[in-house]
Amino acid sequence: MAVYTEVDDDELEAFLATYDIGELRSYKGIAEGVENSNFLLHTTAGTYLLTLYEKRVAPEDLPFFLGLMNHVASKGIACPVPIRDRKGEMLGTLAGRPAAIVSFLEGLSVRKPQPKHCAELGAGLARFHLAGADFPLRRANALTVSGWRPLFEASRARADEVSRGLAAELADELSALEASWPHDLPQGVIHADLFPDNVFFIGEHLSGVIDFYFACNDTLAYDLAICLNAWCFEHDGSFNITKARALTQAYNHVRPLDAAELAALPLLARGSAMRFLLTRLYDWLHHPPGALVKPKNPLEYLKRLRFHRSLSSPAAYGLD
Amino acid sequence: MAVYTEVDDDELEAFLATYDIGELRSYKGIAEGVENSNFLLHTTAGTYLLTLYEKRVAPEDLPFFLGLMNHVASKGIACPVPIRDRKGEMLGTLAGRPAAIVSFLEGLSVRKPQPKHCAELGAGLARFHLAGADFPLRRANALTVSGWRPLFEASRARADEVSRGLAAELADELSALEASWPHDLPQGVIHADLFPDNVFFIGEHLSGVIDFYFACNDTLAYDLAICLNAWCFEHDGSFNITKARALTQAYNHVRPLDAAELAALPLLARGSAMRFLLTRLYDWLHHPPGALVKPKNPLEYLKRLRFHRSLSSPAAYGLD
Predict the structure, then answer these.
(1) Residues of chain B found within 8 Å of residue A1, distances taken between Cβ atoms
(2) Domains of chain B with bracketed CATH
(3) Which InterPro entries match (chains A, B) (predicted)?
(4) What ipTM goes with this model?
(5) Ramachandran angles phi, psi of B11, nearest 5°
């Protein structure tokens, strides 16, 4: 939550001169995102967001991310729209880093989503999936089932420091997921990180989706499973079926799930819980002492994983 | 350069409901200032800055700071204007901290001030001094001559770690300043921290002054001496008389300096260099390892102090 790169005024003005977005009136580094440096720009033409991509984003992935935002925006999805420079490029260089300017999206993220927010999210996610169907670029998901074992191995020896028995439980779960993970469900571009932080609302209406830096090609229903984990559990760890029903039914109304997707939903939700559990576990065990960003507790996702494992049908998610 | 306090959406919306500034459309924590948490707000009525005052600002000083901004703004000084809530109050409470909303000021600070910027600054500083003349509240300057000795004593034992002989040189200088410091020059409200970071320009024109959190009652010409140190030295430590002349003559044109002020200027500039040298020295020796904010090199101000000490008249500042 910081600005990692300071930008010199002269450099910034020279960079902006390559765009047709008016004259700079002010810019402020904003404390948003943990991976990149972001600046809010006011120009005589409007408000924009300038992002400098820091080392955790692979430069070769940027055409996918920016192209996707541009593609889905052109199909009516509310998201930041990359601004092209005078040469037509969406990606430039500033302060030695890859840099892009996108339109600024108004809206507020909700800390305590209500069922109406979940319904908006479900419909929005389905529309995003439909809009991405003909996006031509491809990016593999490094954090799907094949990526979980190396992540697990990097934390396995110390997993029981977090909770006794965790290493054994995760080993069993991982084997089960690897053995039964579905590979033939409908595929497409997924957001893959659609947490409440990344969805803006004005009132109860979804006003936009941000942060496409985990987007990739993968199983569409897996994206819905991520949202079940990210939006439908209460702070005490309990599952809120009213929110889940709002989410899944709104999704299903816009993009109907087929029978195989429906049947796989509990497994996909287990997998999604595993994915966030493993990255949180890794960060928990490996964050440098005194780091600015406090790691999130991985055990929240162990509870969610167990919940999904206990289900015998997708009816628990409100799809009937 | 960070947001120290996270604000909950619900809390923020409840706080904003006590103001008449429209509905919230977005808010971003901004990486500005090292002492407080600042949020840029977009509402249906415009753009505002929300500040949560953290522990380094004494709550009892806030009526002085906010009242001063309100007072000088009403006299035409371009600065953030505190917004009153529906009860007429400029100061509220949010997330357990004193909080205020001010109008957002467009403009860019200059990293490499040119003589034209210095002239704008000089005229702006003089207008600020005139505007503050009838401000009724008072705040003593904790960082004037009487405050330097305790600050020096807190660093004295380790000063030579920074530069050999520093402790002895500062001891001599401090005694000289204490013996000869002028106490009968024209007094008033001074900004006391008018570094380039705190002055905004649009093109070559001064568009506003920010960060009044060191403002206090003190010798007016001392404020000009602070600006001489902050604006008229090059990165290599050399003094730029063209910039100094632009600064002092523009000041003098709006608020003519009397003979005693003119004669005291080299001494005031030595004192100002001492003040920033001592706070930087303290921060240099006492900052926690791994701290987010890198301390500034105190020795830059030793060079400036020596320069001012070498002068026999204010003519070197371009006043003739």
Answers:
(1) 2-3, 29
(2) 9-103 (3.30.200.20), 115-317 (3.90.1200.10)
(3) Aminoglycoside_PTrfase (IPR002575), Homoserine_kinase_II (IPR005280), Kinase-like_dom_sf (IPR011009), Pseudomonas-type_ThrB (IPR050249)
(4) 0.83
(5) -60, -45
